[in-house]
Amino acid sequence: MKAMATEAATSDIATRSPTAMFYPENARFPATTMKLPGGVWWLPTPAGGNRLEVGPDYEAYRHDAPYGDFISIWRRGVPRTVKLRFSDNANVVIKRHDGQPLETKLVKGGIELILDTLPVIIEGTDDIPLPQDSVDTTRADFKALIEEGLRQGLQVGNTQFMFEDAYRSFERNPGAAYQKMLEAQREVEAKLAPFVWLEGESSPQANFSEVVNDSAASAERALSLDTHITPGPEGYFAKYKFRVRHDQATMDFWLAADLPPAVRPHVSVDVNGTALSFPKDAQSGYGRGFGWYNLGKLSLRDGEYTLTIRLLQTSPEFKASVDALLMTPLAFRPAGPRIPRYVPGF
Q1: What is the CATH number of domain 196-328?
Q2: Crossing angle of helices 174-192/157-168, nearest 10°?
Q3: Widest distance between CA atoms in the chain
Q4: Residue 225 contacts residue 320 (beta carbons within 8 Å)
Q5: Which is nearest to 62 in space by CA: 216, 201, 185, 210?
Q6: Structural domain boundaries of the chain?
Q7: Other C-beta atoms within 10 Å of 292: how many?
Q8: Distance CA 161, CA 159 (A)
Q9: Considering just the CA atoms, what is the radius of gyration of the chain in Å?
Q10: Superfamily of the domain at 16-128
Q11: How many whole angstroms separate alpha carbon 223 and alpha carbon 240?
Q12: DSSP per-residue codes, 130-157
């Protein structure tokens, strides 16, 4: 009788187990492990896929697996009615996170629905769903950047042409066009923004192992160190050159990297020989192991600087991946490998 009771209890647990919605590990932040309404668990999986860039007010990712391909999207703020743009709406199916039908409306050039902070599931298309308001915001931001660039006497004509040419192809392929628009926008931002963003793999002088492809990282690449060889007295290092265009009262320094806990106490970072503090833990994680580390502040004058990341000889292991560096006088809230948004006058 006891065995039968145990068997019945086990069967009951199985039937009452909550369903799950999955996200690829590459999309860990914005996605996060949690219990969603309706008893659905949001869980990581080693399946293929990655986070998608669909505008400052939205998060999204692509999930690719034998048991199901889909795209998920949600808003970062208050709910609103959104028009999602696709190159072809014919086979698009949009469901709630629990698989239940979601009220949608076919409109000219897209599908209209209410999006909130809960992820929805989009099936039947490989297109990246583009919220119309993201496109409108990007165009307004770019216009402000171009106007500021012209005011400062910068040569921005080629970049402006690239942006406008991408937008002209938007109706045909919204997702691809938007990515090209963002490339043009960031090219101008890099010339105007008061912050400095450096890709980890861009180091002109390093003795790390190699540059590796990692779809969870910014620009999908990172500078990697993975060796059993103990280094010389100067340790393993990566140096980066950057310029501050105007005197800055304070610059906040951030490092996005994958650093095992045992390695972190043996990491040093300095700017022109001035040591920065290195925290015990990352402030915000993303992907399979990346995190943002706040290194403190420095006052910098207009000029050229060298930032050096070093893994000391004392480390018990020599494993690290450097994704990105940010030096900024502006408030920064980490959001995965996303470059901060900059709009002149805001």
Answers
A1: 2.60.120.260
A2: 160
A3: 86
A4: yes
A5: 216
A6: 16-128, 133-192, 196-328
A7: 24
A8: 5
A9: 23
A10: Golgi alpha-mannosidase II (2.60.40.1180)
A11: 12
A12: EEHHHHHHHHHHHHHHHHHHHHTT---H
Scanning the structure block, which residue is given the tokens 């065995």? Answer: 3
Distance CA 301, CA 99 (A): 55
Contacts of residue 309, Cβ cutoff 8 Å, sequence gap at least 6:
237, 238, 239, 240, 255, 257, 267, 268, 269, 322
Q: Degrees (nearest 5) of the Cα angle 199, 203, 208?
A: 110
CB neighbours (10 Å) of residue 313?
Answer: 14
Other beta carbons less than 10 A from residue 293's beta carbon: 23
Q: What is the pLDDT of residue 346?
A: 64
Q: Is the peptide bond before 316 cis (omega within 30 degrees of 0)?
A: no
- pLDDT for the residue 248: 67
- Distance CA(226)–CA(70), nearest Å, equals 34
Residue ranges of the chain whose pLDDT lies below 70: 1-18, 248, 346
Spatial CB neighbours of 75, under 8 Å, sequence gap ≥ 6: 57, 58, 59, 82, 115, 116, 117
Q: What stretch of H or E contains 81?
A: strand 80-85
pLDDT tens-digit map of 267-281: 999 999 999 999 999
pLDDT score of 18? 54
Angstrom distance (rounded) from CA 192 to CA 187 = 9
Report the amino acid identity of residue 118.
Answer: L
Q: At a CB cut-off of 8 Å and minimum separation 6, what does 154 contact?
A: 188, 191, 192
Provide the whole-model pTM. Answer: 0.87
Q: How far apart are CA 241 and CA 174, in angstroms?
A: 36
